[in-house]
């Protein structure tokens, strides 16, 4: 979006670090769920692949219901901690607990005669209910957290810088989720206990990083005007914001493709190259490369614009994905590693840009309406 509110107000590095660290936990969640949950449900719990996929689909549909509600309600929250931080504070503990439970196999509590094939209905209900609870807890932390960005600064380029810090931490979280998950699981004598241990460790990190942000970041003490529109009126206004709708549609396609790649990567290396552990190597290559290119994307966006940088990144990632799944089986695994490096350059460009563009659309809405409804925009 051209222009944007410019100012000389620079955020202290301590605020940028304090804000950014929460997304270490946020992207740790995204990566662990994206890479490992489906595989955990099918190969460890013993849930049929179709039912496991349905569990995750139901969780995503549930997300589509709870995310807008969390955004709408956080816009209207009034407390001495502000509008966003109370949600993060009280949502982080359930997130920790449900993360442990999600990766705890019911077989741990069953008798010697336990047979997953005979317990498919129970396992499906167990997995679906837990996943919806986990997604709800994550929503309670993540939607208000995202909504903080346009509140902390109205400077066009400073928002890009703030998100650059954020996604530096995000890549660290992704690296932990992709690179440390399997080693943690295998460090335990029993794989079932290993997954529970992984859930505990990663859940604790999500809790700690959210609390650090709650402590280190102070919301600006302004009287936010949210307007008198109800839930549906608020979101009707949101969808009239053309710049926002454009970035929303683009991001929806982007995140759908990324989620599919994450979900099938472990199966690709396990069944095409016959080595599950190579998934970790591939993901570390992808994410380290992305980490290196995030600062490049921030600098480049100031020269050619955020939209163009985002488009270049998506194009690179799309080409790399096609190369991997169309030709990867024809070559040694080293080919796949080089493709993941190539994909990482595009991934680095796409990492921060959407979250730097959305605040610009939020400011555009504020200029038109005089209302502050950041949560509504981030709740979709």
Plain-language structure description:
The chain is mainly alpha-helical. The chain has one domain: MFS general substrate transporter like domains (Growth Hormone, Chain: A), CATH 1.20.1250. It is built from 15 helices and no strands. It has helices spanning 13-20, 22-45, 49-75, 85-102, 120-147, 149-152, 156-179, 181-186, 191-216, 231-238, 242-271, 278-304, 306-327, 333-369, 374-378. Helix 1 crosses helix 7 (156-179) and helix 7 packs antiparallel against helix 14 (333-369). The longest helix has 37 residues, at 333-369. The protein is globular and about 65 Å long. The two termini are 20 Å apart. The model is unreliable at 1-8 (pLDDT under 50).
Put the structure in a nutshell.
By secondary structure, this protein is an all-alpha fold.
Jot down its keywords.
Growth Hormone, Chain: A; 380 residues; disordered N terminus; 15 helices; mainly alpha
Furnish the topology, listing elements before pairings:
Elements: H1 13-20, H2 22-45, H3 49-75, H4 85-102, H5 120-147, H6 149-152, H7 156-179, H8 181-186, H9 191-216, H10 231-238, H11 242-271, H12 278-304, H13 306-327, H14 333-369, H15 374-378
Helix pairs in contact: 1-7, 1-9, 2-5, 2-7, 2-9, 2-11, 3-5, 4-5, 4-9, 7-12, 7-14, 11-13, 11-14, 12-13, 12-14, 13-14
CATH fold category name: Growth Hormone, Chain: A
Gross geometry:
globular
Kindly report the average pLDDT value. Answer: 87
Q: Unreliable stretches, pLDDT < 50, 5 or more residues?
A: 1-8
Beta content: under 5%
